[in-house]
């Protein structure tokens, strides 16, 4: 798909058919499977009660419209007869109708919004549960199964709930309106009599048939013109989300970009990302222009169409002006009811685009869940938690092969190997960059399924992993220290003392300050904060992946000494390149290459002598 910028002299120029690689299918059956679970959930009683109330108010609005249609006949007959008394009485009746309509419309809107939020709340909870269970969010990112899940969970779920209610209530309103007015229009319009081939032909209720033909023609034309908008709306949401993500990445990496002087490259990347938005918007303009042309023409013609069709009866004296206006009003109601598809097509486009994005996201989550469930040691690394393991209280790995994810196959990083991490021991892991040392830690954490073999660990073991770049959530500094435990787990005095022990004295007085600490703290401060967090969590097994890379050697030694002092029974497993770390460990696992020249790199992690400490 070409996303070159449009010609500046004519940004809305129609240069041919829309791109073909867009998600433009109507997937109504699959979409219904997205909608159904809420209505059979634990919240169904409250939901169905609110829905019944909203439907009742909708029916009351239809009744008010029937009342208004009858009022049209009496009011215009009074005008035609110049009956001032009847005119004043009908104005009073109109005020009553208008007051009732306003009150019902307000109540309907209020309770519809209440039902929409209940539905969205339930949907968000269910999808968040799936996304955050079994590290599905991590696997979706690794497999690139769905772009911008944040937008799908926020915007697309909101659109699904909101527009589903709008469309379904609109459809219900159209059906009830049609049933309420079609008989009235049939009766008022009477038969259309004309001669054809020497025979007299009578079409009963001819205005109803004209309304049906008019609506069918408009619906067919609207769908034919507007169908590409489903896929274009899908892609517009995607490109907008990609642009927002690029802006967020610039903000998160502001310091690195500034140090590199990377502003021109970033600006070029952002402009390229925005060009995708502009090009897709150009196609949206083209097809929206066509759709608006059809809808506007359809709506304008509908104003005079019933008057033109009924005019012969009026001018022949068969009906009065009041009846003519009542026919026009009833025709408008019937035609409007039959035009639900035409009038709601723009909303239907956005609704189906959001549903398609959620269906794709659901498929990605399903693939992640299936991959997690299929991990049996042969089709993925199995993580087993048992009360008893071959080495009591230890973490063991048997026949472990680490691999990289691939679209069709997985490339092995290592030969099969086994290892054991016993309580209280210190294990140093070294090897060439790219050999799979960090992958080993991810497999130990249970988030890396790629490869084969089994890892067993005690069911009650507390494990903690400190990556090179520690995660520091936004909020108070105290909550960031307690993470992943709930905020307030430890008192401020304990946290302040620990910060001083970790050489973060300047932060000891800022525990209740809210900030984006991941942006405010230097890499070295973030790593020392991670050490403080490890001491608070008191894990049985602590894995450090280059967790001191941003520290000087003296501070590094102080942090390891603090760990050994405060966590004497914890097993400590470290990935490090500096030999100064070796003094804090008693075992060494070294990755050594075993591949032949010209082959893909593979390594064998094996016991080795500790490197000489400095």
Report what the structure shows.
With 614 residues, this protein is of the alpha/beta class. The protein is 59% helix and 12% strand. It has helices at residues 28-39, 44-81, 84-132, 136-143, 149-189, 206-226, 228-252, 254-260, 263-315, 321-338, 340-343, 345-373, 437-445, 477-482, 492-501, 517-520, 523-537, 553-566, and strands spanning 192-196, 199-203, 382-386, 395-404, 411-412, 417-421, 426-430, 451-458, 463-466, 475-476, 514-515, 541-545, 571-575, 587-593, 603-607. Helix 2 runs antiparallel to helix 3 (84-132), helix 5 runs antiparallel to helix 12 and helix 7 (228-252) packs across helix 12 (345-373). The longest helix is centred in the middle third of the chain and has 53 residues, at 263-315.
Tell me briefly what this model is.
The chain has 614 residues and is of the alpha/beta class.
